Amino acid sequence: MKPKKIAEGVQWMGAVDWDRRLFDALIPLPDGTSYNSYLVQGSEKTALIDTVDPDKSDVLLNQLEGVGEIDFIVSQHSEQDHSGSIPLLLEKHDQAVVICSSKAEDLLVNHLSIPAERIKIVEDGEELSLGDKTLRFLYTPWVHWPETMVTFLPEDRVLFTCDFFGSHIAMTDLYAGEDAYVMEAAKRYYAEIMMPFRKIIQKNLKKLDGLEFDFIAPSHGPVYDHPENILSAYEDWASDQVSNLVVIPYISMHGSTGNMVDYLVTELVDRGITVQKFELTTTDIGKLAMALVDAATIVIGTPAFLVGAHPHVISAAALVNALRPKLKYAAIIGSYGWGNRAVDQISDLMSNLRVEMLAAELFKGLPDEETYAALDGLVESIEGKHAAI
Ligand code: FEO
Question: Ligand 1 centroid to 187 CA: how many Å?
Fold first, then answer.
């Protein structure tokens, strides 16, 4: 696409990647993504904020044809989907200087072989004048690497945020407007990328208080022209408040664990508790991650596979542990045939979670009276805990 104007001298550039279906060789991208770059032309100097994934370098280079010299390339985040085209741009613009935070220099040198002498570190709060426009850099660490920062352009009331507030969605519109689909993509993005750093995000959100902007311009997905919507969503997602929601990721090989999960769902729903269950051979892990943004409780269901938990359950437990959702309660249920150590295995995998374990037991063979009595006990526990939410 051609560049798009946000304000006089401020343009969206970059590439919309309709076909990409996986990020980090793990995260599903059902809606593709975009790599946004922003050109800011002041009366004296020109800056480009972030670049694009190296696979799409040619798109950005074409958009920059005829722009003239670029004085500064602002690298808000060193991950290659934003910084990967910097080396090519430095070749084309031999006077350009890379602007980054203090923790980014090492990453840019190591990952992209950018010469240290082409890099200028800016401090938290430092400003860079482009003439009649000013770029103010604010450190916002861990969104989602340690070096990340955002850039405020006060004259045009634009806040550039790179991954922070981003969404993996390919679309032709520049602005998000009030599109609920964008907010869903932003929640998926938060769940998969930002959630592990929830406490730091709370601090970063506070840091933005007092800045007056009309646009949030992330480096994935559309620009927010109603920034209050995404700010309020982030306040909610990153808060300590959980919902009356139980998430049940599970596998069933011969039906026993599935039967237990169905019983649990019926009884929980009957008590006014919302449930989302995820059968892990078919689950989109992005959907599972999104459910974990709000959930109070997770119940993991597994059969014994040989003597351990099912490998799909092991993978899901490791993912949940890495995402560090704000869960308060957990349980492990399931069925075994002749032996198991699945409970210990899953418990060990979820050591990052600060949860109270309400039940952790696999039952031998088909569910029987003892099994259903134990499940009733779990339902009662969850009901009692959720009543206090
Ligand atoms: Fe969009 Fe952390 O890179």
Answer: 15
**Its pTM surpasses 0.70:** yes
CB atoms within 10 A of CB 216: 24
The predicted structure's pLDDT at residue 24: 87
- Strand 295-305 versus strand 308-309 pairing type: antiparallel
Nearest alpha carbon, ligand 1 atom 2: 79
pLDDT tens, position by position, 285-316: 999 999 999 999 999 999 999 989 999 999 99
Query: Using CA positions, which residue lies closest to atom 1 of ligand 1?
Result: 163
User: Within 10 A of 38 (CB to CB), how many other CB atoms are there?
Assistant: 23
Query: How far does residue 185's CA lie from ligand 1's centre (Å)?
Result: 15
Domains of the chain as residue ranges with CATH: 4-237 (3.60.15.10), 247-386 (3.40.50.360)
Structure tokens at 147: 């070096």
**pLDDT tens digits, one per residue of 320-332:** 999 999 999 999 9
Strand segments (E) across 26-177: 27-28, 33-41, 46-49, 72-74, 97-100, 119-121, 127-129, 134-139, 149-153, 158-162
Q: Specify the ligand 1 atom closest to the Cα of 35.
A: 1
